[in-house]
Write a structure and sequence with these properties.
This protein has 386 residues and is of the alpha/beta class. It has twelve helices and 15 strands.
Length: 386
């Protein structure tokens, strides 16, 4: 760590003594990373009564778009400068995965509560470091896995808690979208602060496709295995009460996304010890478009997807009429409202860093298995691989 960075963190922490909030106080925040996801989150925060007072991004046009929604907010290229800006209660962090840990930990060191996008961190080791730091800080950190706050999914979980499915022996998660195509490496329009985007990642000459499609490059993210997989694995662990997978095997390939490092078609199998989970993704096909999770019990089967929740009694072929059906929207507002409420109450939010660490551990493990061509096993520290 440079001396300038040490001085920033020490100074920002000193300026950021938590103020006591009344129920009617308007919370203020800084938006760190103002891409499409960040701007969407910021609009929801504003709708729920919070005020954006600062924005930063490595791409100038993103900042300008965010400032249209947040007139009067200060703009910054570097998140360190944003964190030193006075009057910020919390940060909203929506950058690439390799920035998740720095943005989160620097926000905490500056005395802020944090709403951060998933996955928790780019690697298992980073995730463990985040959990240690957040636990010691006393700060409120909500990870953006909004299914945890969706009322309809809590209703679906109650069906399982009644024992309707019996013993759940297998979970099958999938995500199909016919969206893959060669990566776009044409010049970027507008000013991009390339070295700021790279951050701690290996230095290299400008390649616009790496910025546009950072999720599919190993230096910046875990691909769709951890991106979409974090959401789905979290629901599997939450609904079944199972522990993080003990081992994983996986394989995949690049079908249409020429230029990518992570596959756009893959299959993984996770062993929880007393249940198996499969996780398949095909971005070259739209059959049953979107996400789906099947929870298969010896007394019933539950399917969750964009259409809702459906439950069939066993044996399925003799009970084709569902015994339960309901819509299951996953709105963003309840998750963000939960975070805002917890800032004032100082209670733990619906998706803690511990929950997020468990959710992404299996997908990280599957990536290791896939790229090393072996069965990968995970120790109980959620960091050590054998």
């Amino acid at each position: 760590m440079t001396s300038d960075r040490r001085q920033f963190l020490a100074g920002a922490a000193g300026l950021a003594a938590a103020r006591k909030l009344s129920a009617n106080d308007k919370l203020t925040y800084g938006l760190i990373a103002a891409g499409g996801r960040g701007r969407y989150l910021s609009r929801v925060f504003a709708q729920l009564g919070a005020q954006c007072v600062a924005v930063c991004d490595a791409y100038e046009p993103n900042m300008e778009l965010a400032l249209k929604d947040t007139p009067g907010a200060k703009k910054f290229i570097e998140h360190e400068a944003l964190l030193a800006h006075p009057g910020i209660d919390f940060t909203v962090c929506a950058g690439p995965d390799h920035w998740h840990m720095p943005h989160l930990l620097d926000s905490i060191k500056a005395g802020k509560d944090v709403y951060t996008e998933k996955p928790l961190a780019r690697t298992l080791a980073e995730g463990a470091q985040v959990v240690r730091t957040v636990k010691a800080s006393g700060k409120v950190v909500q990870v953006g896995m909004q299914r945890r706050s969706a009322p309809s999914l809590h209703e679906a979980k109650a069906i399982i808690d009644k024992g309707t499915l019996g013993r759940i022996t297998m979970a099958k998660a999938q995500w199909n979208w016919n969206t893959s195509k060669p990566l776009n490496n044409s010049p970027v329009q507008g000013e991009l602060h390339w070295n700021r985007f790279l951050g701690s990642a290996p230095k290299r000459a400008v390649e616009p496709m790496r910025w546009r499609s950072w999720r599919v490059f190993k230096d910046y993210a875990g691909g769709n295995m951890t991106d979409q997989g974090t959401h789905l694995m979290d629901v599997v662990l939450w609904f079944t009460g199972r522990s993080v997978p003990k081992s994983a095997v996986a394989q995949g390939y690049i079908a249409k996304m020429t230029g990518a490092e992570h596959p756009d078609v893959f299959s993984a199998v996770f062993d929880h010890g007393d249940m198996l989970t499969t996780w398949t993704l095909d971005y070259a096909n739209a059959y049953e478009n979107g996400w789906q999770i099947l929870l298969m019990g010896d007394e019933a089967t539950m399917r969750l997807d964009d259409a809702g929740v459906t439950v069939w009694k066993e044996p399925w072929h003799q009970n084709l009429t569902p015994i339960a059906e309901m819509k299951a929207p996953v709105p963003m507002e309840p998750h963000i409202q939960n975070f805002l409420d917890c800032i004032k109450s100082r209670k733990q939010p619906n998706c803690t860093v511990e929950i997020a660490q468990a959710a992404v551990a299996g997908p990280h493990l599957a990536n290791i298995a896939m790229f090393e061509g072996r069965k990968a096993k995970l120790a109980s520290d959620l960091m050590t691989i054998s």
